[in-house]
Each structure stands twice: as C-alpha cells, then as structure tokens.
Amino acid sequence: MESNVDLGFLLQALMPSWNSVPLLTGFFTYLAIAGSILPGKIVPGVALPDATRLHYRCNGLLSLLLLVALLGIGANMGFVSPTAISDRGLELLSTTFLFSFLVTLVLYFSGCESQSKGSSLKPHISGNLIHDWWFGIQLNPHFMGIDLKFFFVRAGMMGWLLINLSILMKSIQDGTLSQSMILYQLFCALYILDYFVHEEYMTSTWDIIAERLGFMLVFGDLVWIPFTFSIQEACGEWIGEWMGELTEGQKVGLRAVLQAHYLVFRERELDVQGWWLLKNNVELTTAAMVANCFVFLIGGVARHCNYLGDLLLALSFSLPCGISSPIPYFYPVYLLILLIWRERRDETRCAEKYKEIWAEYRKLVPWRILPYVY
C-alpha cells in the first residue's frame, strides 16, 4: 500500500504544470537577452562545407555570473525563493521535457519548409519522420538571430548549476548540509565554470559542427544534462549517507580523481594546435597528421583521452554517495555508454574524411579511450 502511495505521489509530482512555465520562460528570456547584449568575444566557428562560418558571442561566463547574482539579490529581497527549483524538481522536469518535444516538432516542420541551400539551414530529409525528428534536419537553425544549438547547450549547463544551488539552499534550510553535499557542489561548480571559461573552444565540438538539431540534442541539452547530471544531489538519502565526516584518505582519493580528470580532459580538449586546425578547416597532409599524432601521444596512447577525463569527473560526482545504491552511479554509467557510441561515430566520420591518414593515425595511437584496455 505504501508503494502505491509513493508511486501516486511520484506520478502527480511528474505532471507538467503551468506553475513551471514562468520559471522556464524567465530563464530562457534572460539567456536570450543576456547572450545577445552582454559583451563577449566574437568567435568564428569551424568552416562549413559551403565555406561559410557562423560567429558566436562567447559571453556565457558573464551571463552565468550575472544570473546567479541577480537571483541571489532577488532571494535576499524576497522576490524569488531560493528553493523554487528544488521544490518543483519533477514538475520542472516533465514541463521541460514537453517543451523539448514541442520545440523539436517546430524545428522539424519549419526545417522542411526551408529553401536554403547553405550548410547551416539546408534541410536533410531522409523521408523517415521519426529519424528526421530525432536527429534533426538542419545543422544550425536560428530564431530571431539566436543560434539555437549554442543557446540550448548553454541553457543546459546553466540549468544544471541552478538546480544544484537550489538543492544546496534546500539542504541548508533543512539543516542537512553535509561534507558530501559540499564536495559535490564544488566539483560540479568547478566543472561548469571551467566550461564557460573555455566556451570559445566548445564551438568546435562534435555537437556544434556535426550534429543536426533534433530531439536528441534538444532533449539532451535541456532535460538530460541539468536533471540527470544532478541526480546524485537530488537523491539526498544517498549523498548524505556515506559522508557525515570524511576521513583524510577519502578526501585525498576524491581530489585525486578530480585532478586526474583535468590532467587528462583539459590537456586533450584544449589542445590549442588541434583546435586551431579544426577551426580553420586546415586539411592535414600525412606528415602533418603524423606529427600531430606524436603531440597527442605525449598525453597517452588513446585517441579520445578527453572522454576518459569526462568519465573520471562523472565518477568523482558519484563517489560521495558511497556504494549503498547504484542510482547515484547512473550518470557515469550512462556517460560511458554515450561516449563509446559517440567515439564509434566519430571514428567512422574521421575514417571517411581522412582515409589512409586516419588509418596511419590509428596505428600510432592504437587505443580508443582507456590506454591498454579499450
């Protein structure tokens, strides 16, 4: 009987509500305005197949800091509740999911009507409605001058931090703040801030340059990133269980995992030479490709060491929850599956583009993600 009550409460909490609409509308409106008017470095994107380039205003860090400051002032003055998000977590989840579904339907039908021949807006229609809706049919659709792909991923990363901060305030109000919560907050905040500090380099990532904008990306950005990546914190019964007080050994171990992430991930992800070549669409000769392989080999013998760094970071988010339940480890397990799938698709794309050069690179760098294992 108790499980039925719990299930009923869960289903009721998951129902979309008009109460969540003002929160989402205000958030998206702020991002649209701040992203358009706040100062930021204008970064040219990777050259598209038709030789055109999109340009991105990289002011995400300023937008995020200003938003947190405004919310802090608003909470202090009683205009907004600091726990508004945590109080409506499941309701916001379902409302955001519904919004993502509706947005991607609009993207699909508007894309089908596009007559553009340019790489950004040219529709790629397979004829399979589900496939085209899921993967998208336009590379970089815009709305009122806003690049929607860049906008949605920025919203997802900021939303993740806002959810974390709201749950933090809830734990402070309830008197349940623990070292595990503090560690988790620090790890996530560091990662998110690092993302926006280096936002310029994100304009050459796989999602931005290769994936079309469909439900897969919109749902991933607006729902999966903020709501799934914060699952460790949302499941307070696990995150507070293992670490009432941490031993020095546990603290050292967690710091080691976090530091290992940045040594591996940032070294590869922000390889300035590789990023410059990609941004400027430089076609590598065999000799140049081989030379770059040796540069990459300095950081290891895996072609996607940055994925390993991301996996280590995801693990550091979950370790504070202990091992009493598998649920807090959903994020790193999911990420492992996602990155293996992405790595396989990336390998196929590079093999088609670079052909024998890529084959030579694979001989020099034999491992995919984890050296000597995979």
TrEMBL record:
Question: Would you identify the family this protein belongs to, as annotated?
Answer: Belongs to the ERG4/ERG24 family.
- Could you tell me the membrane topology recorded for this protein? Multi-pass membrane protein
Q: Which GO terms describe its biological process?
A: sterol biosynthetic process
Among the entry's GO cellular component annotations, what is one?
endoplasmic reticulum membrane
Where are its TM segments located? 20-40, 61-80, 92-110, 151-169, 181-197, 284-302, 322-341
Indicate whether Oxidoreductase appears among the record's keywords: yes
- Keyword Oxidoreductase tagged: yes
In its UniProt entry, what is this protein called?
Answer: Delta(14)-sterol reductase
What Pfam families does UniProt report for this protein, alphabetically? ERG4_ERG24 (PF01222)
